[in-house]
Amino acid sequence: MAAKLTEPNWCPDREGSPAQQRYRPCMTQLPFSVDALVVRTDFSSDAAWDALRAALSTPNEDDFLANVELVDDRRFADVLPEDAIGLLSAEYEHPLLILADKQALASEELPLLVIGLRAERGQRFRVVAEWLWSVENNLAISNMDFKEFASAVEDDGVLRGF
């Protein structure tokens, strides 16, 4: 599923007189979901976003999928990980938040940024889209912990499986 919001509110981009102000879309709270949110923060390539959507909706050879809710909303363009955490609703209980940022969408591997929200709140690592199912499924049921995945990343900081 994809949450798509429309008609952003406009907020001043800097201090100054009304004649000097530029405006940008205001960031609002991320939508609530029981699934992990995958938030699109880079809008430079619709083709890359479509490739990510296809990758996340394709089961692996054992028929596993990540349980995710896609957020495709320009109000979250270029949002930083620490800011994204602050945009979560108090009811959001999933142990991770995932960003589809510029680095993720610029690579064919689609290395998504995974942000821990429990004891490791704010810690991060990247995982290729085809392995997100393993991270999301195992963290959601507390079968493994964040540190196990973070310690398995390769030298470039990306997890490509075990």
Layout of secondary structure:
Blueprint (H helix, E strand, L loop, with lengths): L1 E2 L6 E3 L10 E3 L10 E5 L5 H11 L11 E4 L9 H6 L9 E5 L1 H4 L5 E6 L7 E5 L3 H9 L5 H5 L7 E2 L3
Parallel strand pairs: 1-5, 4-5, 4-6, 8-9
Antiparallel strand pairs: 2-3, 6-7, 7-8
What report would you give on this structure?
The chain is α/β, with parallel strands linked by helices and 162 residues long. It is built from 5 helices and 9 strands. The chain has helices spanning 46-56, 81-86, 102-105, 132-140, 146-150; strands at 2-3, 10-12, 23-25, 36-40, 68-71, 96-100, 111-116, 124-128, 158-159. The strands form 2 sheets. It has a 7-stranded mixed β-sheet. Strand 4 (36-40), helix 1 (46-56) and strand 5 (68-71) form a beta-alpha-beta unit. The chain is globular and about 40 Å long. It starts with a strand and ends with a strand. Residues 3-8 have low confidence and may be disordered.
Distinctive features:
single chain; 162 residues; alpha/beta; seven-stranded mixed β-sheet; two-stranded antiparallel sheet; 5 helices
